[in-house]
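Exercise: predict the structure of this protein bound to calcium ion.
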Amino acid sequence: MEKKWWKESVVYQIYPRSFKDSNGDGIGDLKGITSKLDYLKELGIDVLWLSPVYKSPNDDNGYDISDYQAIMDEFGTMEDWDELLAGLHSRGMKMMMDLVVNHSSDEHHWFVESRKSKDNPYRDYYIWRPGKDGQEPNNWTSFFSGSAWQYDEHTDEYFLHLFSKKQPDLNWENPKLRQEVYDMMTWWLDKGIDGFRMDVINLISKADGLPSSPGGKRYDWGGDYFMNGPRVHEYLQEMNSEVLSKYDMITVGECPGASTEDAAQYANNEGTELNMIFTFEHMDIDSGPGGKWDVKPWKLADLKEVMSKWQYDLEGKGWNSLYLNNHDQPRMVSRFGDDGSYRVESAKMLATFLHMLKGTPYIYQGEEIGMTNVRFDSIEEYNDIEIHNMYGEKVIEGNEDHQRVMEAIYVKGRDNARTPVQWDDSENAGFTTGTPWLKVNPNYKEINAKKALEDKDSIFYYYQKLIQLRKEHDIIVYGKYELILEDNEQIYAYTRSLADEKLLVICNFAGENATFTLPNDLKYGSRELLIHNYEVDAHEEISNFVLKPYEARVYLLN
Ligand code: ISL
Ligand code: CA
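Solution:
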């Protein structure tokens, strides 16, 4: 077990557009974040991950970057950014920037040059191909619906875009492009940042020949040809030796479609690639065969299976990241808990479940006050390009039922996570004095940070305690995971073991009472209740007891 600060840390993710607006234009900004650093310090987090703040035309809210070394006008200036970094560092917190280099914006000067002519020096910075029989070069569909190829009249060729057509994919096979990326990363690291979260980094290597998917649909999922592609480890090892290995930093790669075998390589203990990756497997347990929008109820058995697989398979080989929501996912309390009667209890239970697993926990803004999903009446009230493209394909061009698609958006839409952070019960939840770019969730009078800070039993203070416990007990960071009560349909329970200690984590995922029975082979001398979300009699016998709805307890056994 090798000790590392990034294993002991808790990361907090900010989606700057929705965090805090300082100047009344309705858009969150850097000064807004800086004004809330004491709040983050009080929560106790160690690292801040900033979703992209670079110059961008905002086709995908900053994940389409037109200048990697400049700040988005709406978010402020480089001086504002310097001030944010200094504010973090002076409070003992670190900063992780988002690195989006699978693609750039089509307004990046590399692409502006690249599309000019076939012999432009920047042509090979992107992936250009001639059409086939008057159609796209292959049948891949984009993550955001439709073809992954866009025709460009100017040179009579198509360029690849796995995301929106304003996000052309960079050509990692070109060593010049790779060097530009490494130089840019070095520039930020030398400005003093402490790490990178790498956007869809396992998509950077595409299969030779860019073969069509055999699925047979007009536009079909081609993931087998660009997820964990043939040269991805080579590129990451190069990046590691050129850049990452020269700094004491934290890295996490976003890796849709990565298996635990892939992860053991990306996040290997030798440190030749990244520190950890974001898996998506647990985010898929409520999707049917039709993909993300084919919503189905999730099962606790599936959650146990997926999470345990990642815990077991990376043991001794690599490091896990832990998350239940982010800016692309619905709110965890709406998805895995109960955002009605048991909102507070279930939010605390889910937090317990996640933070006691082995790995580095990530908190997404608003999670610490139990923010929930939102339901807007009309499609126009949504902003997200993924939602609009999908709606266009299914309802406007296709014949699917409007209301059915809206219901899927209510469950899975990314804007669930992007409504402004609810700071207090004043107009617009204290997020802005102007008109917010995306409507505030109407439940802000009930759910807001001010109220949480005034209530010692709030979700906020529960997170504060979870984070403190992590600092006090090595076992929470380094203990070995083991699932217990595997077949129980209500309770997810597991142990962590380190030297003579054991941690016993008991989480009731049901909205009703559940009976816990301690496995016979779990023997202990003394026990201490470290954290709990209901009143518990400290002397209560634990060999057999009843858990209340969404109850969670963590015992330290000796
Ligand atoms: O959001 C998703 C599920 O609907 C994913 O498909 C998501 O698009 C994918 O995980 C990649 O996400 C990242 O890259 C995208 C960006 O839109 C996301 O916000 C980002 O997290 C393109 O840069
Ligand atoms: Ca603003």
